[in-house]
Specification:
The protein is of the alpha/beta class and 398 residues long. It has helices at 11-24, 44-51, 62-75, 87-106, 121-132, 150-159, 235-248, 273-289, 292-311, 317-329, 360-363, 375-391, and strands spanning 2-6, 27-34, 55-60, 110-112, 138-139, 173-176, 181-184, 214-221, 224-228, 231-232, 253-259, 265-271, 335-342, 345-352. The protein has twelve helices and 14 strands. It starts with a strand and ends in a 7-residue tail after the last helix.
């Protein structure tokens, strides 16, 4: 038997390689997707082989991740439950797709992931896998093995000489990519416990933010960011640059309790520096380039679109249908936005576009000859007609 494991080098997948070999008497091949984990990938291939894998694919997917996943989602202004910019969620369909492709190439009998039976990632990985290959066998150790906690995994790893990046003192579950890093578990399971300052990777703690504000200009073409401060950058490099700028000013750190797809609530601390800047800048540009009714309709998609991404339905026809409409809405979202970064905040300070439908001649408070203010009276009376009819009827409310 041959199994391809989605391998990160973290606690769960480090134990999984050995567990799969023992439990299934299988050959294990690791697959580690580089979606922007930075130094976390150092030595990951050697570690997988040392732990028992026959070999380990380590593939740089950062450009594809930013271009085909982060940016289309940003066009939708997708945000889950008003706070979460979907950093972990959006990486899973890409990782899952490539996992299946490697399994095909290796003629493997199964794929395996380290997601727990309580979380969202099991759903995201498996929905992707079944969309790619309906009959694929999926092994999910957290739904099979005897371990009941991460503490037990840490002890198992220690007893078997498996090096892992967490300890009983800091048992946080972390997930990092180009868009964000998440922290869950440990003292964070108490929603009243404040996260410690050392729980900071992609942003500085607010106390260490730069003391001077900084202006940054982001340029968009059809809703896709293409330049930072006038310099054209590839999708991945643009994300890296904005992450650096956001980190310097402590931008993008949130502490939330979210509703998981499986039904329970989960508390997490997320750092999304570049994504926060992009989200705010993109919305600002839309305010001068999008028609009012188009914006209203597109915004009505946001909760459903965000839920599709969060719940793992990236490869579902409903998400693809919405993406077509969203792409159409972005035809004229081209231009520049200036933001001011300072002490954890991202302030919009300017926006411009050759496609702007903002008209100073009409909206001015000074003298103008294009807008007849007398017309407003008829507009108001027409909109008030149904309210006046109700007030004159037995349905009178006030």
């Amino acid at each position: 038997m041959k199994v391809v494991v989605a391998y990160s080098g973290g606690l769960d997948t480090s134990v999984i390689v050995k567990w799969i070999k023992e439990t299934y008497k299988a050959e294990v091949i690791g697959f580690c997707a580089d979606v922007g984990q930075a130094e976390e990938l150092n030595g990951v291939e050697a570690k997988a082989i040392r732990t028992g894998a026959t070999k380990c694919y380590v593939e740089d997917l950062t450009e594809e991740f930013a271009r085909d996943f982060i940016f289309p989602m940003m066009q939708a202004n997708a945000i889950y439950e008003g706070s979460y910019l979907l950093g972990t969620s959006i990486a899973r369909p890409l990782i899952g797709k490539r996992l299946v492709e490697i399994a095909r190439a290796e003629k493997a009998d199964a794929i395996c992931h380290g997601a727990t039976g309580k979380g969202n990632d099991q759903v995201r990985f498996e929905l992707t896998a079944y969309a790619m290959q309906p009959g694929i066998k999926v092994i999910a150790p957290w739904r099979e093995w005897k371990f009941k906690s991460r503490t037990e995994l840490i002890n198992y790893a220690k007893n078997h000489g498996i090096p892992v990046p967490v300890t009983a003192a800091k048992p946080y579950s972390q997930d990092r990519n180009l868009l964000h890093i998440s922290f869950e578990g440990g003292i964070l399971e108490d929603p009243w416990s404040a996260p410690p300052d050392d729980l900071s990777v992609m942003t500085r703690p607010l106390s260490k933010a730069a003391d001077e504000p900084e202006d940054v200009i982001i340029s968009f073409k059809k809703g896709i960011p293409v330049k930072v401060n006038g310099k054209t950058l590839s999708p991945a490099k643009l994300m890296i640059k904005l992450n650096e700028l956001g980190s310097k000013h402590a931008v993008g750190r949130i502490d939330i309790v979210e509703n998981r797809f499986v039904g329970m609530k989960s508390r997490g601390v997320y750092e999304t520096p570049g994504g926060t800047i992009l989200h705010m800048a993109h919305r600002a540009l839309e305010t001068i380039t999008m028609d009012k009714e188009v914006m209203f309709l597109r915004d009505s998609f946001i909760p459903n679109y965000a839920r599709m991404v969060y719940n793992g339905f990236w490869y579902a026809p409903e998400r693809e249908m919405l993406q077509v409409a969203i792409t159409e809405s972005q035809k004229f979202v081209t231009g520049d936005v200036r933001v001011k970064l300072f002490k954890g905040a991202c302030h919009i300070s300017g926006r411009r576009s050759e496609y702007s439908i903002y008209d100073e001649k009409i909206c001015t408070f000074e003298k103008e000859d294009v807008y007849d203010q007398h017309d407003a009276e008829g507009f108001i009376k027409l909109n008030a007609l149904r309210l006046r009819m109700l007030a004159n009827s037995k349905q009178k409310r006030y």
